Each structure stands twice: as C-alpha cells, then as structure tokens.
Request: fold
Amino acid sequence: MTRAWRGVLAGMALCAGMWAGVAGAVDLTIGFIGDLSGPGANVAQDQLDGFRLAIKHLGGRIGGNEFGLIVADGRHDAKLTRQALDRMQQNDRLEFLLVSLSPSHIAQLLAPAVAGKTLVISLNSPPASMAGRDCSPSFFSLAGLTETMNDLSGQYLQQRGIKTLVVAGPDTPASRAALQALRRGFKGDITEMTSRRGEMDFSSNLRTIRSAAPDAVYLLHTGGMAVNFIRQSAEMFGKDRFPLFGPPSLIDQTLLAASGPAALGIGSIGFWSEDMDSPVNRRMQIDFESDYGRMASAYAAIGYDAAMLLDSALRAADKKNIGEDVLRTALRRVEIPSTHGAAHFDSNHFAIQTYVARQVVQDARDRMVDEQRGVFAKDVRDGHAGECPMRWTIEPPPKGP
Reply:
C-alpha cells in the first residue's frame, strides 16, 4: 500500500454509524457525513464511492496533498449528524466537510461548521434559503435546488406542448413544494393526485388517469411507491401509456433497475446522463462499475466531481497557507472540472450548470439508462443569488469551443 493511500484510508470508517480519527501526519482533513443507512442510503453511498474513485484516479492525493478522510453515517438523525461533526472538529483540524443529508439536516450543521472554520460542500439539494438570505461564505453547493429542477421540468413540459398534466405524488410538504415550483414553469392545467405515504396499489389512480386522458403525468412518488406506479401503469396501459415524466432525483439507477422495461420512455431534465461523451465521464463509469459492481449514477458523478473540485482548488491555493480564506477564494475562482462539463460557482456559492433533456432507453446490455435529448438550458442560476448578501467578483465562465 502506498504512503498516499495510507493517508486516505487512515481516517476512513465505512461501517454504518462508525467514526474514526485520522492517524498519522496529513496536510489536511476532509469529513463526509451522509445518510449511509436507512431509506435512500444509495444516494450517499454512491456519492461517497464516486468520491473515493476520484481519489484513486488522483493517485491518492488531493491537490498534491496527503490527506485524511473521516466518514460518518448520519442515519437520518439530526442529533447523530451534529455529534459526528463535533467529534470530527474536536479531534482534527477539519478543512472541508462533504454532506449528503436531508435539507433540514444540512442547514443545522452549518453554524457549528462555520464556528470550527470548516468549509461545507453540499452534495444534495439544501434548503432554498441557503441560496438566498441564509447564504454563507463557508457553504458551497454542487447540487442544484430541488425547486429549480422542478421549475425547469415545468418549462420543458410547456415547450413540449403539454396542455393538461396530472401530478401524482404523496401528500407531503415536499410534494406540495415540488408542485408549486412546477407551476412556475408550466402554465397548462394541472390535476393533483395524492396518495398516502406507503401506498402500493395505484389501480384506482390509474383508472382515474385513464378517464381524464391527460397529455402527460408528472411523478413525484419515490422509492417503492414510484416503482409500483411505473410498473402498474405499464401493465394497465401497455404501449398506450401516457407520457411519464419526473424530476431528476426520481430517475436514478436504483429505480430504473427495479422498474425494468416498464421505465422505458420516462422523461426528465438533469445535469448528467450516462451517454455524456467525455473521457472523464466514460472513465468514471467504467471504473465505478469495475470497482463497485454496479452502474454509476448521477449521485456517483457528483461525488466524483467533488473530489476533482477540491483537487483543482487546492492546486490553485497557496500550499504554505492552507487556511479558510485561502481555500474559500480558491473554490470561488476555480473552474469546476466535472463529468458533465465545466461549471463555476455563482455569487451565492451554488454551481451554475447546464441541464439536458433525457429519456429512459435500453442500452446494449439491456439495462435501463438515461439518454440525452439535447441541451435544454445552459448556465442555469437558481434564482436566489440576488437575495444573497455576499458580494465578490465572479470569474468569467470558461469560453466555449
């Protein structure tokens, strides 16, 4: 084992709920707190594994620095996530913290992270207020806001000529917020169809949809509810099924694998797809599947991108003075190298990204994957940057070909 890999692995605790300090001399320490167990654990696990793969591609160092990585499972528990951060900061100088948590838990970690002079990089969508009035010089987000993606989806449906839309989802605050954002982009008629959480039989809903004959259905169910809705709609309607769309958070590899051919044709808007033709994206996917035995996802891509971002920022920083202000400035100025093309941070520290239209197809190995249907929106800002009190000069975006 190389010295560099000893530095990486010394601080890594991969068992759920475990925590370990960094052993040996390292140049900097990075923490990862994610919900690695319980519902939706595949999200944080893919992000962590994508990060680890990028470290392997970087030769075990970040920006030429030997570092320690501390991993903690938040278990969807605000108290546990706070305890994990406290222990990280008490035992080690924590330069960066990567978070893969629910929006409310992301927000709750910010104040103690700032107090400990730790820069936080979110891999999941945080609360919208953190892009606006509650923005922070110590907080960066590689993930777009959930409301932005639903707004873009509404715009896409509008441009597709959809006039009548059924929105099917659970009766939860998150679904209501998603519907509100969807309405900003979509101006046609919307019929809401809510179900109890945990509902698995959608036959009645589907019969109602058949009678209503909408132009399309927008699906806000997640997990097993989404899989059952997709399968049952395919069984009931066959090739005559209504066009089905959803937010990018719905159309991930876990859902596609569970839904099988029933998922064919589902449309979405996203910042990444499997067929993005770049050497970085191809290498990431091939090696991810080789190392972890499963297909890479958009979550794996964002974890991979996080490591590449830190590598670029640290290479641009003053290595003799790796302090909070130096690292913040480096993050602000760096062009984010990513699996889906270069991006950069807006004045509120949220990534400005390009989104593509996607549709689920079957690849050469009979797997369900997203395939691009063209660029939908370039250099998308989240709409809250003007509310953020931070003021700094944004580097000009990279010039296109």
Residues 1-23, 397-401 have pLDDT under 50 and may be disordered. Residues 125 and 146 are 6 Å apart (CA to CA). The first helix runs from residue 3 to 10.
